[in-house]
Amino acid sequence: MSTSQNHEGRPGRRAVVVAAGAASVAAALTACTNQGESGGSDVVEPAAGDGTDTRGTALARTADIPEGGGKVFADQGVVVTQPRAGEFKAFSSNCTHQSCAVSRVADGAIHCPCHGSMFDASTGAVAHGPATRPLPARKITVTGDSITLAP
């Protein structure tokens, strides 16, 4: 007799508990993803690749970053904003509260979906907690209409 079945051929208590636990974990992970999310999220998902360091390569064109908004480049760990016409800023895309990835830039703020922290899109300063530290600035270069993450 298998240890995962009882003497009547039905699954045993341990097998049922393990299966229920696995289903709970799968449900929690599914609920935490941003797939199908709408509402202005400008997260750029990682492209399939070999994991090489891509700093120094173009992130976006200046026209891709909306004035007063921005885009999150999840694969680069950076969020690029354009607080005012022609002014581009970049910050780490990891919230300083618990390192969740920020999800979007809207209304002059960078938003973290995990606990509601918001950061000023011009400075990276905390606009709303629970985060208490600003987003670290990242160095970018704007050449013509190309925005590049500095090496």
What does this structure look like?
The protein has about 150 residues and is an alpha+beta fold. It has two domains: about 1-30; about 45-150, Rieske [2Fe-2S] iron-sulphur domain (Rieske Iron-sulfur Protein). The chain is about 15% helix and about 30% strand. The protein is built from one helix and eleven strands; from the N terminus they run H-E-E-E-E-E-E-E-E-E-E-E. The protein has one helix at about 15-30, and strands at about 45, 60, 70-75, 80-85, 85-90, 105, 110, 120, 125-130, 140-145, 145-150. The strands form three sheets. The protein has a four-stranded mixed β-sheet with strand order 1-3-4-5, with no helix packed on it. It has a four-stranded antiparallel β-sheet with strand order 6-7-8-9, with no helix packed on it. Strands 2-11-10 form a three-stranded antiparallel β-sheet, with no helix packed on it. The longest helix has 20 residues, at about 15-30. This is Cytochrome bc1 complex Rieske iron-sulfur subunit. Pfam families: Rieske. InterPro entries: Rieske_2Fe-2S, Rieske_2Fe-2S_sf, Rieske_Fe-S_prot, Rieske_Fe-S_prot_C. Its cofactor is [2Fe-2S] cluster.
Query: What is the name of the CATH topology of the largest domain?
Result: Rieske Iron-sulfur Protein
Give the helix/strand class.
alpha+beta
Query: How big is the Rg?
Result: 21 Å
What number is the mean pLDDT? 74
Low-confidence regions: 22-54
Major sheet attributes? 4 strands, mixed
Kindly, what is the distance between the CA atoms of the first and last residues, rounded to a whole number of angstroms? 61 Å
Task: Provide the domain count.
Answer: 2
CATH superfamily of the largest domain: Rieske [2Fe-2S] iron-sulphur domain
Number of strand segments: 11
Helix content: 10-25%
**CATH level-two architecture of the largest domain:** 3-layer Sandwich
Helices and strands, in order, run as HEEEEEEEEEEE
Overall geometric form: globular
Percentage beta strand: 25-35%
Domain Rieske: 57-149
Keywords: 2Fe-2S, Disulfide bond, Iron, Iron-sulfur, Metal-binding
InterPro entries: Rieske_2Fe-2S (IPR017941), Rieske_2Fe-2S_sf (IPR036922), Rieske_Fe-S_prot (IPR014349), Rieske_Fe-S_prot_C (IPR005805)
Region (Disordered): 35-55
